[in-house]
Amino acid sequence: xxxxxxxxxxxxxxxxxVYVTMGSQSDWESTMRHACVVxxxxxxxxxxxxxxxxxxxxxxxxxxxxxxxTSIKVVIAGAGGAAALPGNFAAKTALPVIGVPVESNALxxxxxxxxxVQMPPSVGVGTMAIGKSGAxxxxxxxxxxxxxxDTSVQDRLMKYRSALSDAVATAPVDEPEKRx
Length: 180
Ligand code: RP5
Prior knowledge:
The chain is about 40% helix and about 15% strand. The chain contains six helices and five strands. The N and C termini lie far apart (about 45 Å).
């Protein structure tokens, strides 16, 4: 899962359903890997790529232009700062693109959030919360989209939610070490 590779559409194996892309290696550990953890848990095959809007624009445009010709149904795109990647990617594909604003050093991800969410009318990017929460929800949202057409994915998503419910206690308990 952590392998970095240049995306070669003609070599796709295992029929991935989700394309997870990010602007930089620096987006991976803190943020984007959490989307992949969710996809793994829900047994949704995916591939991972780095497609920088400003450093590798040709790669970004090539991959975004070809991704709908594969088994992939949903794109998750994370970026920080000016965060042009999700919008650029969405402009080149009719597949749904879920944007994840990466928490930036300068503005704590507010810049990323506004860049991704404020697409002018014409091309939409479904925008999640900033950082790890957004990446987790991006994985879940991708599952919900795929689940609308694939009952086995929908079943796994509902089981995931049941497990979350089961883990919530009916009442809070005192944590001894935090007692005054
Ligand atoms: C964006 O610039 C990336 O998505 C990343 O969040 C940010 C900083 O990138 P690096 O300078 O760490 O490569 O393109």
